[in-house]
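Same chain as my last thread, 455 residues:
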Amino acid sequence: MIRKVIIGLLLLVMVQGLLAGGILTNTNQSLQFTRMLARNASVEIDAVYFNPAGITMLKNGFHLALHNQVITQGRTVTSSFPYLNNKEYQGDTFVPLFPNLYAVYRKDNMAFAFGFAPIAGGGTADFKKGLPDFENAISLLPLKISAAGVPTTAYSADLAFKGSSIYYGIQLSGAYAINEMFSVSLGARYNLASNTYEGSLGNILVNPTHPALNPTGAMIPASTFFTAIGDNATAAAVSNQEVDAKQSGSGITPFIGINIKPMDNLNIGLKYELATQLELENETEKDLIASPQFPDGQKERNDIPAIFAGGLSYQLTDALLVALGGNYYFDKNANWEGKEKLLDSNSWEFQAGVQYRLSDLLLLSAGYQRSTYGVTKEYQSGLKFDLSANAIGAGARVSLMDGLALELGGIYTMYESFDGDYLYTIAPGVNVPYKVTYEKTAWVVAFGLEYSLGR
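reply #2:
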């Protein structure tokens, strides 16, 4: 049991979206998003991602934007499992570079766009002291040894795990204005995925008081003890081991869009991204000895779910713009090697934002987003947990000169904690109840430049 639990948990099952978006997908894909959040009816440069048919609303000419987001995220897992030395485990993610590059050329009723963005992942989760998922089984060693007639009261271990993920998306699209009211778009995004895993399990010590093997009851290597008593399987499971593996793959996301402008002060944007079949292949340098978890060359599915997005913007006055929007993610239809079956429902988001023009040189904006995930306690784990959240964003746009603007924005995300009640089977018919609490914090600071040769 100990061997199976330890080796089965030394990996990330699936890569999650870093901040805003669905379980896998990032939708914090522009600086305007960080300062307003409701962008699905955008007719500015970030329409390349949020409202691809809306690029026909830009002025004739060439438009370019380069944005970057600096993201800090903290994760805390608290467990009441009674045999653990530690109850709280913390992981940190810091992303200094999360770039978005967009370019549009419009000529009359035709427009063409290029986009580059981290469409999923984008960070490294570093748990320097491991996770309870790893340590639960190790914490039972004193109980197991004592049950065999050798008094044992303590254990210690050095556990660490670091997992990183980045899915770069490169997209091309075209849009056509049928008339003043309707525009349509068609495009595709090429996604290039790369995940890396580094884990270590070592220096596992126990203090069995055994007259021949350890008469003083000092802390000794667990592998030494189990080897001495002839339990080679457990000795292998508690020996020093490392994981150093990479997964890579690629897939294409087709998408379509429509922009509707029924009146001068109202705009509506709709977009549908088809599901992306994505297969990841292992490239492994080191793996667990007793039971390899990343066989070199093995493949697994990690699809990007289909997304339906919609929004509207309304110009209340010459200075004040209000916007609403939402996203629906078809998570349960994706292939995540069975993990999708642990969802109660698909995830969704609602957004609202306002923008106010103080002068020709300065715009201020703010927004709100609600994200809801249909996860179950069986889905959640220390390595992969998703929490419903409320986010607020604010920022400004400053015109530096004709055609050139500076954008500044930020987001604070307030995650709801998730409590799960679990049972751990330590022997046939013997279950230990315990609770795990999952928590997150996140901040974003963003800055960027936009240049337009439009006329």
